[in-house]
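step: validate -> pass
step: tokenize input -> pass
step: predict -> running
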Amino acid sequence: MDVAFGRGHATMNADTEDRITTLEPGQTPKASLFIEEMKEHILAASAEDVYDKLEHCHNVRRCLWDKKDRFSDGRQADGKDAEGNAWRWKGAPILSVHTADKYVRLHMLIQSAANDMGDVRITPRRAASAPAGGEDLAEIWQNTLDYFRDEGERHQSYQSELFDICKWELGYALQLVEVETTVRNELRTMNVQQLMDAIVKRAQDDLMQNAMDAAGGAEIDPRQVLTEQAMQVITETVTVNIETVLASAGKPTEWALAYVRAMDERISNKEAASVLRQLRDDPTAEAEYSAPKDDGCMVRLETLIPWVNCIHPNTMSGECKTDAIYIPRYKNETELREHAARRGWKKADLETLIANYQNKFFTELCTAIGADMPGWGLNGMGIGLVVSAEALNKFPHWLFIEVYRRITDKFGRPMVYRGAFHPSMPDVMLEWSMTDLTELPIIGDTSEPVNRAMDARGVPEIVVDKQNFIKDSLDNEGSRGQLGSNPPLLRTAGVHAGISPGKELFAKRSGNSFEGSQFMTVPEVDMGTIKLIEMVDKLVDDYYFNSPTTDPQDKRAYRQFLMMRAKRMLSERLKLMWTLLQEKIDVLQVSSINGRPVNLDARRDQLQGAAAISIGLHVDGLNQDGAEKFMKVWQMAMQNDPGGVLNHNEGMNMMMRLFAPAWASRLVMSNKAASSQIIDEQQQRITKIMSGIPLQYPEKVSAPEMRMQVLQEWQSIPDNMQKLQTDRVAAFLMQKEADWLKFQDQQQNVNAVTGRTGVEANTAEELAAA
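step: predict -> pass
step: emit ->
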């Protein structure tokens, strides 16, 4: 795997040193430019009350309001007056109504079904599907994408769930797609014999290379170069050198270390010196050492929560397109050093960051520039986290900002760079490397079409709007201001009684609500509140086409709308994954994908080109009723298909995916695998016929036309025809096999439901008569 990025340190021209929109490859901009740009984005977001909007959606979804804690179910008194505008009473049961959370989950389930039910197909857009050499590029592309999706299935599903939560809770969400290498230290052993063999092999290769250079491209016989005398000289020389190295004392020389590196090129000088010390102490034992092992690359998805762990320009489009994105990262020392080594940071810059800027959080930067960032907005560390200074002193974390920036060169060609900096280090760019992309590797979606994603509304905001509507319809004085997100108490104006031990609540009305006056009996549950909860739920259900009385076509149309959006997001994510994979894969070898055997050997040159990704989405597959409906339609279609135009394999595939997607992934074979199995079965039947073994004739068999083709190909071989002419029993059984397959083909075209054969099993009398 090759994921190395070039890193330039060229000096910028005087006229471009204060710009980051137009740069040349190799030019490294000032970190101060990114710091100022990021501050401007934060100020603009604060001016548009972005943080207040996010906090509002967050609180509504969880049914939280001012002064509420986990021990109470309503407002606590403002100020010191314990008898203030309290709702309910001390010790009252928790009756919070998580209406918004309910519909966030509803949207997530629908979209998750769309992602899981999708039948993803990927094909080369500009490449021939079967080029010279017999390579099926479409199959190679499909298997490659399937492998990376299967390998990262758990991680990708978690990030997709978080993405849907953010989109419907906060209004919009972004997702970062990257391909990163995975490197680990591998513990290995080395003994003197292995070391000698490796050095001898290296000497042989050098001798052959010298001979080929001297021949000037002419063919040479290796036996004339690696003669017995030459091999003896090499072996004796290596033996003497190894004995000298092991007998020496003190610090190993460079050529001694080179001997160890001949065994394993990944080994460092420090580990090579350790190997030599161990072999000197005991030449008969094995020396242990560690070496970095490249485990290849893997697609990494990361959901970016708006203004919690990502900052972007307020000019972001409704499609979430932008030229820059800033991602605060918080890492402990181990994680920070690992990240710095992977990205190629300068060691001096890393040590400066670690020594001087521990526990410097992003909230401090926002406060310094005047942004009103809420306490829960600790970027990258989760909503609702409370900072413990004592804990952070014992387990410190370090902040740095990762930036993706779209720029152009002087010819207007777009480039995307990835960088890193610290807000308190304006003169140091920790990282600045060019990627292979022309657009930022992010995708995003909003809960509704908007001009700017920052103005998008999430489900909680829509739910509270509907709650307020029904409250106002019952109390024109606006009881929502008094009761927060808990529905109001219902009481008529004529019944005004004091309530104890809680404070009385009065809503001025004329007439009765529901079946008359519903009021709270302390400390019993307020049935009027329960009634209103039901009414709010029903109203919001109607809004989302989820009421039992909603027209089924409206409900289906709404679900289809949500699933089509999920399909679009899945398609964009897969296209971006494919673009990144094409640049990162040198060689990919896979023996199995999702439990099924696949002989995949993909090279970089096979994977180039634009990908055409199609996703088959089954809207009816959300429930068992939809699957049964498809089953009925499929049966009727099969009965009215005398011409055999239906694709039976594809129909069975869809049926299994609708009824049981998990089982379908293991039971349903690809067309190629199914064809291979059918061919093998028919060849085994021919083998039994030629061996005189009686056969069974099932009432229905798969692909009779393909089986007939196998039979005809076997009979077309002259030697096989000659065998049949000399063996009357085999000839009779072969003719009966052909008649059975013809009848199967006819019956399945005429009546695809039953497929009756009318062919009886072999009997001893039949064989004797033949």
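step: describe -> The chain is about 45% helix and 15% strand.
step: cleanup -> pass
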